[in-house]
Amino acid sequence: MNPAHPPRQEPDAPRDLVGIGIGPANLSLAALAQPLGDLDTVFYEQRPAFAWHPGLLIEGATLQVPFLADLVTLVDPTSPWSFLNHLKSRERLFPFYFSERFHIQRAEYDAYCRWVCDSLPGLHFSHQVDAVRWNPERDLFEVDYTQLDSDGEAEALGRTYTRNVVLGVGTEPHVPDPLKPLVEAPGVPVVHAADYLDHRAALLAAEHVTVVGIGQSGAEIFLDLLRNRPAGREKLHWLGRTEAFAPMEYSKLGLEHFTPDHTRYFHALPEPARDRLVAGQWQLHQGIDAGTIAAIHDELYRRTLHGGWPDAVLTPGVRLRTAGRVATTKVELHLEHGRQDSRSRLTTDAVVLATGYRERPLDRVLAGLDPYLRRDSRERPRVDEEHRLVLDPSVSGSVYVQNAETHTHGVGAPDLGLFAWRGAVILNSLTGRETYGLPRRTAFTTFGLTRRQQVPAPREAPTLIPLADDRR
Known about the structure:
About 25% of the residues lie in helices and about 20% in strands. The protein is α/β, with parallel strands linked by helices.
């Protein structure tokens, strides 16, 4: 099931591909690349082990995508790295069959990815990539890294040469500017949703808790807090800028915005049109699952059965202006309601920021490539249809990006359901052949009035040098 890559010919021999970051996107690419015996790959990750949003693995919380959106199935259903094969290896396939679940729990998805990591070769954790440079004399990329010990301290320095690079560094928690000083201050009960489970016990013990942000994470955290606080003494406040506790768009035709067809349509639009479209499609990915909304309403309603209302305030359309500490144990939030043109203050004992994530800036790791990068009118890296950074023609190698191209590929960029397809596009581009056959059409919707070629033919890959015959 798991043949290792053939040994490299020389200790300093260049790789075909170096991956930076081991989240689901690069893990999907690594799994799809593993059967290709003529491709030498290695992936580096700063963390000591795989972890997928560990602070949000709330009991019962499920993915918003079906289990078929695993690392490989939508491209290669016969892959040994599929979720169904994971269940089979754990002797859980029949229980899963009878459970009739289409959407699995987040914790189960995390366990599946860990299973892949445990067996897949070429994954190196506790390796922090410090810089990527182009070496024109060797016609290769230089990737400098620091190997970390069990305490996260530098243990050794290293350098890898490679013909191509793929960045899969993911996103990072977003904290509104007014709350940054409070989050960074020690002892202040203000935490991002990404760290919710680490602080859950303290939040349940707090007298009053405020959840900021009314997307899916905010809804799941509010529901978890609500279910675990005494009736009549909930003392919860849930607020956010969105005008309503809006459901996520989950109609079948609406979901076709997360298909390769829409991705290609979006990429071909002019830059200003792409920016306007992303802003207007927030409900495709920033709303709340209808089942979670129903569960919240059911729990609130249950608490009215014996008279009275739960001590919970749910307020949409509210902007957080500023925030400060009151004494040493409380936080004061200064709020503004745009429609009413009104302001108020809210004193609370703890704040959970369900304010989402932002694409992690690439400037630090790509500083050495800055002279070669081509940027758009807003100084963002340009990315071609095959998910490659647009570089100066003097650079013969390619730098691919995963989950850092919403501005060029649309709202589907961070969606788990497109990871396998994007990985296949990258591998087809990298090898210069149709390594993975991709469907010509993926949606009933025709996006736009002019049809384009549905699947781009793999381009010649002059940077991939054939490997020696004995590396099979």
